[in-house]
Design goal:
It is a single chain. This protein has 4 domains: 8-90, Phosphorylase Kinase, domain 1, CATH 3.30.200; 97-337, Transferase(Phosphotransferase) domain 1 (Transferase(Phosphotransferase), domain 1, Orthogonal Bundle), CATH 1.10.510.10; 357-476, Beta Barrel (Lipocalin); 481-576, no CATH class. A 6-stranded antiparallel beta sheet has the order 1-2-3-4-6-5, with helices on one face. Helix content is 23%, strand content 29%. Helix 8 packs antiparallel against helix 9 (261-271). Strand 22 (447-451) and strand 23 (456-461) form a beta hairpin. The chain is α+β, with helices and mostly antiparallel strands.
């Protein structure tokens, strides 16, 4: 941007250039009469010839001047002299949040929340006046000499329900903090600021943003298509419920985010320890809920604000992939905004990332769902909200198991986790199983029995995670174990189940059948399972007698009725 050659603009003497942002050059200036120092924002000469930029610049000045809040930068005067448009605002001599993060890497939970709540409160006021910031990022959050953080640079803000000042086909913002709808060029509302501030909170606690790339286009595409890694995996000190708040703030679909910053503030206020709440509450206008709170490598940086004109030349540069994602995301938002015709009330719904390979677990009005990308969702059925999320190191194909206020889940990252349901999915313990946990574990008498795809079998104390015993099937295990009396039946391969004593893990028997497609289901003295018939064209339910001496006789149930089934007698061999 070209600088102004004048040494004085209006009543202000220009001292030095201190920055650029929001289509303006910012100078440290001094009032000619009072001597007071201000930050003077001036529209560059090359932009004054475009009425749209002039109008946008004036809108920023007028929008901010009407917002009286201790955490929004003050505007003293809006003016124009000889075609030079400017406005004077308070000069903050402190550092930006970006400077703070560069110095410390990441912030503690109390520090981050103490910064976050006042800024959220300030943006809530802006939203109540119909103003959406659209460029919330650490560079636009600055502290005074007394350490009071304020939001600034409303340079690409627009007024809801008013004239949109965004040029058709233009994507404006800073790539690393842009919401999916903003990245796609779709219409935005206040929830785009909620997404952006969620990314800022993520960065404050994790020390980095969730999406990084070599180019702005690459980062924009990630916002539209990728599920971010949980910040708790990067920084285990983040409470599970706080990680859940971040996850809700940065949901891909705007409807799945918090409806307003008031809800964000209420959730954050409950996510911090009791002794912090009074101090945090004193820094904002009002934290008392007005509504029932919702529950909740390489380091390339692409932080510059971008303006992507979707002209034909840039469309070629964007490439087919990004354009396809923009179109699909726009259609997705449009479809999701249509109110479906229904003859009965529509129940709350939500979406998860990736595929589900196993059914959810349910307990006390909660659903626990594992996804292909390794995310476990704790979903409140009644309210339709996700209370918290947990991110494992690899995919989850095993159904979670709920017992005693905990949810137990295994992952392909070779770990089985015990998570505290009431405390936002906090990890109580985790154990390395030595293999991928492909199928759901089972619980009996306070012991968790886990099998891995590689054939490991473990018995873990549910309370502590302490290993009681470990054994090996010698075969691939992709089905869940089952328990009958004092025996643990573990599918091994596709035509065999090994039997272990649950107390010490000693191998006490073996069942061999033609095929095994489901876990063993013990009922009375028989073990039932599903196979294919000899022609391999339909399923059959088969059974083998398993008690008291694991007889070799059994029966197969087919469309023709009950037929004898032979199975070799098990070998009484044990290993520990």
């Amino acid at each position: 941007m070209g600088e102004h050659p004048e040494k004085r603009i209006g009543k202000y003497l220009l001292l030095k250039k201190i920055g650029t942002g929001g289509m303006g050059i910012v100078y440290l200036a001094q009032h000619a009469e009072t001597g007071e120092q201000v930050a003077l924002k001036v529209l560059p000469p090359e932009l004054t010839r475009n009425p749209k930029y002039v109008e946008r610049f004036r809108r920023e000045a007028l929008a901010v001047s009407g917002l009286a809040h201790p955490h929004i930068i003050k505007v003293f005067e809006v003016g124009e002299q000889n075609g030079v448009h400017y406005f004077a605002m308070e000069h903050l001599a402190g550092a930006t949040l970006r400077d703070l993060l560069k110095k410390h890497g990441r912030l503690s939970v109390p520090e981050a929340v103490q910064i976050m709540i006042p800024i959220a409160d300030a943006l809530d006021l802006a939203h109540s006046r119909g103003i959406v910031h659209r460029d919330v990022k650490p560079d636009n959050i600055m502290s005074s000499e007394k350490g009071v953080f304020k939001i600034m640079d409303f340079g690409i803000a627009h007024v809801e329900e008013g004239t949109r000042l965004t040029v058709t086909g233009t994507i404006m913002g800073t790539p690393e903090y842009m919401s999916p709808e903003q990245a796609s060029g779709a219409a935005v509302d206040r929830r785009t600021d909620i997404y952006s501030l969620g990314i800022v909170l993520y960065e404050m606690l994790a020390g980095r943003v969730p999406f990084r790339g070599e180019t702005a286009v690459e980062v924009l595409q990630m916002h539209m298509t990728r599920i971010p890694e949980s910040p708790k995996l990067i920084n285990p000190e983040i409470p599970g419920n706080l990680a859940g708040i971040i996850a809700k703030m940065i949901e891909k679909q705007p409807a799945n985010r918090y409806a307003s910053f008031r809800h964000v503030i209420n959730a954050l206020s409950q996510a911090v320890p009791e002794h912090m709440r009074a101090d945090i509450g004193a820094t904002v206008r009002e934290i008392q809920p007005t509504a029932k709170p919702e529950k909740a490598r390489r380091e390339p940086r692409v932080r510059e604000r971008v303006i992507l004109q979707t002209s034909s030349s840039v469309r070629l540069a964007l490439g087919l992939s990004i354009l396809l994602n923009v179109v699909l995301f726009g259609l997705f938002l449009r479809a999701s905004s249509r109110a479906p015709e229904a003859t009965e009330p529509v129940r709350p719904a939500f979406t998860i990332s990736g595929q589900m390979f196993a059914p959810p677990a349910a307990s006390d009005g909660m659903l626990f769902l594992g996804a292909e990308d390794g995310t476990l969702y704790a979903h409140d059925v009644k309210s339709g909200t996700t209370k918290w999320v947990f991110k494992a190191g690899d995919k989850i194909t095993a159904a979670p198991v709920v017992d005693g206020g905990r949810v137990y889940v295994g992952s392909w990252d070779r770990y089985v986790y015990a998570l505290d349901i009431a405390n936002g999915g906090e990890i109580i313990w985790k154990v390395n199983t030595g293999g991928c946990v492909f199928a759901a574990p089972v619980i009996a008498d306070g012991v968790l029995y886990v099998c891995t795809r590689e054939g490991k079998v473990l018995a873990l104390d549910c309370e502590t995670g302490r290993e009681a015993w470990r054994n090996d099937t010698g075969s691939t295990t992709k089905l869940s174990p089952s328990i009958h009396d004092n025996a643990l039946f573990v599918p091994a391969g596709e035509a065999k189940a090994l039997v272990f004593h649950i107390a010490d893990g000693k191998r006490i028997g073996e069942l061999t059948m033609q095929q095994l497609k489901t876990p063993i289901i013990p009922i009375g003295d028989d073990a039932y399972f599903v196979t294919f018939n000899e022609n391999n064209d339909r399923n059959e339910i088969s059974s083998i007698e398993i008690a008291p001496a694991q007889s070799s006789t059994g029966f197969r149930w087919t469309a023709l009725g009950r037929q004898p089934l032979s199975a070799p007698s098990p070998a009484d061999e044990g290993s520990h």
